[in-house]
Amino acid sequence: MSAEPPAAPGPDSGDTTADRYPNTARIWNYQLGGQDNYEVDRKASEAANTMVRALGVPDGAETAIESRHLLQRMVDYMLGQGIRQFLDLGSGLPSMASTHQIAHRAAADARIVYVDIDPLIPTYAAGLMAGPNVVTLRADLREPEQVLSNTQVRDLFDFGQPIGIMFMCVLHCLWDKEDPWGVVGQFRDAVAPGSYLALSHMTGEAHPEAAEGLFRISQDLHWNTPLISRDRAGIARFFDGFTLVEPGLVPPVQWRPGLDDPLRDRQAPGGGGEPVLKLVSPGPPSGDRGVGWHLCGAGIKDQA
User: Which of 53, 59, 63, 274 has the smallest number of Cβ neighbours within 10 A?
Assistant: First the structure.
């Protein structure tokens, strides 16, 4: 697949209010069972799902839910390492458990900044991402200085202390010419040693035919972003300046699956509130189900 944009690109990634073209954030919302999407997004989602199912590959709903559980485990891991500041880049529309809900259930003092370019983000932020120690910022992560120089971000974060930088299912929406590796590097250089980078990224490693087909669908239907699968070496490059923690760069279902998962659908002794997120299956999928689309990992920033 080409990692360069076509000569006549589709709608700009910032033009996401129109319902003429599929929007990646709204498609993800649909795959997670959300309501913040249009008919064009639902049709695009089902076109992609039909294609990958025919190839015996996990569809978007399976992948989206597994990615939410990965988010939970990664936030929990970083909390366990003492991280109390989280920069969630490309956070998307609120769906199921979000970073601040995960973090605050264990550390009420945790501070979270959400960043996304979608113009719908401020609308939803007030009701769904509001709360103590939470900032939601509409900005373009491809221009890190928009985020790093923002007054709200500088007031909330102590950049002398470690920060958890998170790129969950977003870097594969950037073309090579947009230099996603350089983008990650600018955020890396802005945070203190001991900070963490956590990410997941599409790969064609297990299912190259499906990965190519999904990229083609994103282009043929004029999604607002591409879906670019990169190989293991290309994904590992994002961790330059970081030391990967165990188990390294792996499919999501293999990344610390033994971590306690309080977001699963279980009844607390004596009753209790509704779970934040229900898991489709209580255990890891059989065979390669759920492992075909992404590689993920977390790394700690090296000492200067």
Answer: 274
